[in-house]
């Protein structure tokens, strides 16, 4: 009985020592490794070459590792990669994640783009589901490196194929003949220009002379403009002032004439209404008197002065001769 009790006691002590030793190792690991944070990254590209335990680097500095890789249950187009990084890693707003692969086939998760003074990426308190669909903060992604090249390879091949077809059409026999004709025409044009070299040089020289003459003409126009300004200041402006004075004097004379006409208007009205009819009557009477005088003169001429007081004498009658 005592032997059995000793065995149980020894077993219990051993178990306790093992548990204490395990706790000690866990504590040592925490002390050495420090606390860590978890983040999710959703890639819409192939994550071939990335595996559980792959390195997570921040600006090239190893800062954590990949702990889980799985298709996202809400949208199978995305691959959810969960990572753990050290607590002192500056995962701030503006930080992005890319997959960097080498030609050996191994890939790592590269974090970069932290902005000084920006708040850390965290789950908001008001709506955590939208920013943290699986309970941890999400780091946005950006294409880069060999992964981006491989994801865009189909489009690149399609564009290369289209470019090749267009080059084939461009270099067809018909287009080659056209290009040959264009080159031949270009050669003839170059030869013609070379033959016309002296004439072109003479034309350029004449153009220079014309430009020089144009400059001289512009200078003379400037001098003429200065002379015109002087003439305006010295001659035209005083004459204009005298003309303004003459116009003012003429206006004053017109005002005086208007006043005189206004004063003479009553006399003119009386002359037109009274004097003119009387003058007409006088002319009529003078005409009648002139007619009477003319009649008297004719009578005197014909019968003498006696014809004015008696009837005219009858002519003497003489009988026929026997």
TrEMBL record:
Q: Which InterPro entries match?
A: Mce/MlaD (IPR003399)
Listed Pfam families: MlaD (PF02470)
The answer, when asked if Transmembrane is one of the entry's keywords, is yes
> For the region Disordered, what residue ranges are annotated?
301-322
Give the signal sequence positions: none
* Protein name as it appears in the record: MlaD family protein
- Membrane spanning stretches: 7-29
Instruction: Keyword check for NAD, yes or no.
Output: no
Native organism: Sphingomonas oligophenolica
Ranges of residues in domain Mce/MlaD: 41-104
Coiled coil, from the record: none
Query: Which keywords does this Swiss-Prot/TrEMBL entry list?
Result: Membrane, Transmembrane, Transmembrane helix
């Amino acid at each position: 009985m005592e032997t059995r009790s000793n065995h149980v006691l020894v077993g219990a002590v051993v178990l306790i020592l093992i548990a204490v030793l395990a706790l000690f190792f866990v504590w040592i690991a925490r002390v050495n490794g420090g606390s860590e944070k978890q983040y999710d990254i959703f890639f819409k590209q192939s994550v071939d070459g990335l595996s559980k335990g792959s390195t997570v680097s921040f600006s090239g500095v190893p800062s954590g590792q990949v702990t889980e890789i799985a298709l996202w249950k809400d949208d199978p187009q995305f691959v959810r990669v969960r990572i753990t990084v050290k607590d002192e890693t500056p995962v701030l707003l503006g930080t992005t994640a890319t997959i960097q692969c080498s030609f050996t086939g191994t890939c790592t998760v590269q974090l970069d783009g932290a902005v000084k003074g920006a708040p850390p990426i965290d789950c908001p308190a008001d709506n955590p589901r939208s920013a943290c669909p699986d309970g941890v903060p999400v780091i946005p992604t950006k294409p880069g490196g060999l992964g981006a090249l491989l994801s865009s390879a189909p489009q690149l091949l399609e564009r290369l194929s289209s470019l090749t077809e267009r080059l084939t059409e461009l270099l067809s026999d018909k287009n080659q003949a056209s290009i040959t004709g264009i080159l031949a025409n270009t050669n003839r044009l170059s030869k013609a220009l070379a033959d016309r070299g002296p004439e072109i040089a003479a034309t350029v020289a004449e153009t220079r002379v014309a430009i020089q003459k144009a400059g001289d003409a512009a200078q003379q126009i400037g001098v003429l403009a200065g002379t015109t300004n002087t003439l305006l200041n010295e001659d035209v402006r005083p004459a204009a002032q005298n003309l303004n004075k003459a116009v003012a004097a003429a206006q004053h004379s017109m005002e005086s004439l208007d006043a005189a006409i206004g004063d003479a208007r009553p006399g003119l009205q009386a002359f037109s209404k009274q004097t003119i009819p009387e003058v007409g009557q006088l002319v009529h009477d003078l005409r009648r008197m002139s007619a009477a005088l003319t009649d008297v003169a004719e009578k005197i001429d014909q019968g003498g002065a006696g014809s004015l007081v008696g009837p005219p004498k009858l002519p003497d009658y003489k009988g026929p001769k026997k």
